[in-house]
Amino acid sequence: TIQADSWRLPIGASVQDGGKTTFRVWAPKAEQVNVRLLSSRTAREECLHREGRGYFVGTVDEGREGDRYTYILDGVTERPDP
Fold it and tell me: What is the pLDDT of residues 10-51, one digit of tens each?
């Protein structure tokens, strides 16, 4: 679940100004990681970019506090945010 915080964790979802959300996850064995947004408004999937040291990061235009999301590893395995 997306939550707005006054501080940022090194991983997870961070709601940004302007209605954007940044996602960051550690998946060192994955070649590709996508984030799948699951909301009543829309269901969409966005590719995260390899950041280094096993981390993937990306900012999406949608995603509000309380929205649900999962990560898709290598286009096959769906996992909740750990």
Answer: 788 988 888 889 999 999 999 999 999 987 566 788 999 999
Distance from the Cα of residue 22 to its chain's centroid: 6
pTM of the predicted model as reported, rounded to 2 decimal places: 0.82
Q: How many residues does the chain have?
A: 82
Q: Are 67 and 37 in contact (CB under 8 A)?
A: yes
| CA–CA distance, 44 with 24 (Å, rounded to integer) | 17
CA torsion, points 52, 26, 64, 8, in degrees to nearest 10?
-80
Token pair for residue 62? Answer: 């949608």
Q: Judge contact between 59 and 51, C-beta under 8 A.
A: no
